[in-house]
Structures are given as C-alpha cells and as structure tokens.
Amino acid sequence: MARTSPLTPSNHDRDSAGMTYIYPVVSRRAGGISVGVNLNPNNACNWACVYCQVPDLTRGTAPQIDLAQLEAELRALLGDIVHGDFMQTRVPEGARRLNDIALSGNGEPTSAREFPQVIELIGRVMADFDLIRKIKLVLITNGSLIDRPRVRDGLAKMAALNGEVWFKFDAATAAGMRATNQTRITPDKQFERLTIAARLCPTWLQCCVFALDGEPPSDAEQSAYLAAVKRIRQENAPVQGVLLYGLARPSMQPQASRLSALSGEWLNTFAAKIRAAGLPVKVSP
C-alpha cells in the first residue's frame, strides 16, 4: 500500500491505496471497511449533484477499464485486508470488519461499458477469497442507465453475489431533481428505472438531504417524496427501504457555499414520515 495513515469515516480519499481503481474507506453507513471500486478515475459523471465530493467533476462517462489492472489491484488490497495487517495498522478499532465491496468512485459506475465484466471479475475474486455470501457487493448508482441491457445484465450477476443496489432518489419532483442532481430526467422515468433495478437485485433508495441557503427541503418536496414512497408500496415494487443521510463531508461543487447540514432531529423526523408512508429507513446524519 502506498500510504499508511489511519482511515477515518470523513476521509474517502480515492488515492489512499495508491491504486487507479481500488481504494479502502471506513464507511459510516456500512459500519466497517468498504473496498471501493472506482470505474470513473477521469472524474466524469452524467449527473452533477450539488453535494458531490468529487473535485474537478466533469460531465461524461467512464473511460475504458483495464480489467487486468483492476483485478490485480482488488486482489492486492483484499490480500492485505484478509491476510495482512491492514486492519490493525489502518483501521480504527471499532471498524475492523470487512463489510462490502462497493462500486462507487468518482462518477456513475454503470457508465462503464465493461460493467458486467467488472461484476464477473469481482465475483471470481470474491470466490477466491471465500467472501461470497460473507460480505456484500454494493452498487452506488444514480440509476440513470439501469434500462440499458448491459447494466441489467450486471445487476442480475450482482444478485448472485449477495448484491445490493443503492439507487439515488434525492428528490421526487422535476424541479427538485434539477436543483439537486442537475439532471432533466423526470421523476416518472427515475421511478421506472428504480422498479427495474429492484426486480433484478435487492435495492435501497439512497436519499441525501441538506439545507440549501439555510432552508431544508420544502413541504412540497417532502410531500412528493412521501407520495413516491406510497407509490412504491402500491405498485409492489420490491424496494428494501430508504438510506437517508445528511452531509458528512464538504461538497466540492460550485454550490458548496449554499449547502449546510440538517440536524439529526430533522433527519429523524423525516425518517418517521417515510416509515409511516410504508418503507423502512436507515438514518446516517
């Protein structure tokens, strides 16, 4: 490993292992070590969420992936975690457990043309380290490409590897999605893609909430979100629940100065409303 400084939940430095595609983080939501897979080392994404922590974010897609290099890096880091002294030297005492391998990184991971091949590769490595069904394989996605055949193929492969999709659903109005995610995808289209994902692989909504110019999400935005949750229940979409979280690390986007964290009390109150609408909620302030 290139660096030996301790990891913390507030530091998700993609370069902490000195690798191109693979990096370790202490995940506050996972409660342990997450092995990150960054398929967007070019910092390119088809969305531009105002709270994104990626510096120099650009609009675009993942570059061509060097599958051999990705596999070598994944094997090296897992070897250090499973068989080496990584946990003792890099990880706080309360977080010394390997929780998952997570495709996240610096852009939308499903934009990689090699996405299904990456899932197959990860499955081989997990099998070699006897990790299948012992840890999760998580995809953190904005969901915008779920209806593409290669992405659906990858999700089906994930389901066999204890896979879980964290599907971005920050707002349920067109105006809210434009303001938060800077996309013109409609909420109905996002809902359609959510249903596809949930039927292929266990899926959670991930919802980031924050104050903009000192104001929390409006009553209208909250009501629209709760209506979407009720629709999920009414249409029997097999969504697992909602991962509701606040701002833990500073945004690196031009809107950063306008954003601020909401209180734990606000998050818990909104979580109670979501539960009342019909879905379980996990809160990470």
Structure write-up:
With 285 residues, the protein is of the alpha/beta class. It has a domain at 22-209: Aldolase class I (TIM Barrel). Helix content is 35%, strand content 19%. It is globular.
Strands side by side in the biggest sheet: 1-2-5-6-7-8-10-12
Count every helix, treating DSSP H or I runs of 4 or more residues as helices: 8
Fraction of residues in β-strands: 15-25%
Class per helix and strand makeup: alpha/beta
CATH level 1 class label of the domain at 22-209: Alpha Beta
Regions with little confidence, pLDDT below 50 for 5+ residues: none
For the record, the CATH architecture of the domain at 22-209 stands as Alpha-Beta Barrel
CATH superfamily of the domain at 22-209: Aldolase class I
Describe the protein's topology:
Blueprint: E1 22-27, E2 32-37, E3 44-45, E4 58-59, H1 67-83, H2 86-90, E5 98-103, H3 115-128, E6 136-141, H4 149-159, E7 163-168, H5 174-181, H6 187-200, E8 203-208, E9 211-212, H7 219-234, E10 239-245, E11 259-260, H8 264-277, E12 281-284
Parallel strand pairs: 2-5, 3-4, 5-6, 6-7, 7-8, 8-10, 10-12
Antiparallel strand pairs: 1-2, 9-11
In short:
By secondary structure, the chain is α/β, with parallel strands linked by helices.
Tags for this entry?
single chain, 285 residues, alpha/beta, TIM Barrel, two-stranded parallel ribbon, 8 helices, globular
